[in-house]
TrEMBL record:
This is MaoC family dehydratase N-terminal domain-containing protein. Residues 6-132 form the FAS1-like dehydratase domain. Pfam families: FAS1_DH_region (PF13452). It comes from Prescottella soli. InterPro entries: FAS1-like_DH_region (IPR039569), HotDog_dom_sf (IPR029069). It comes from the Bacteria.
Length: 149
């Protein structure tokens, strides 16, 4: 059962260095042929590049464990990125802070209750400006999935 008291839990702020090589690796991995990602010294990051925070966030930077979803019933439901200017370019250092903003339930179409949790991560540049925001929604089903479902 998800923990509704997780709302407001915030992870420790940490840095994400947007590196040219990592932008290129991400672009290659996602089959991009865009020269802005692959060839420029001042490469801009693809919009979904910020997903790489999952490789760099220290355990104390990720507040998701406070939601207490059952791993056998949890699913990634949605991911959204919002930019407040151009995507970060190579050489940018971003300060990342994640927080749980909502936990709520809905009735599922196949019966059973679904519990949703929302985590928002702000990406702030060295001037203190929020340059991007990621919103991730996870869902926990009422019971584990079965092979015949």
């Amino acid at each position: 059962m998800a923990n509704a008291d997780a709302v407001g839990t915030e992870g420790k702020t940490y840095d994400l260095d947007v590196e040219r090589g990592k932008i290129r690796e991400f672009a290659v991995a996602t089959y991009s042929s865009n020269p802005d990602y692959l060839e420029r010294e001042d490469a801009v990051s693809p919009p979904t590049f910020l997903t790489t925070i999952n490789f760099w966030a220290p355990p104390e930077g990720n507040p998701w464990k406070a939601v207490e979803f059952d791993g056998k019933r949890g699913l990634h439901a949605e991911q959204q990125y919002e930019f407040f200017g151009p995507p970060p370019a190579a050489g940018t250092r971003l300060r990342c802070t994640s927080r749980i903003t909502d936990v709520y339930t809905k009735q599922g179409r196949r019966g059973g209750e679904l519990t949703f949790a929302v985590m928002v991560t702000d990406f702030v540049d060295d001037t203190g400006t929020v340059v991007a925001r990621a919103t991730m929604t996870g869902v926990e089903t009422a019971r584990p999935a079965t092979e015949d479902a």
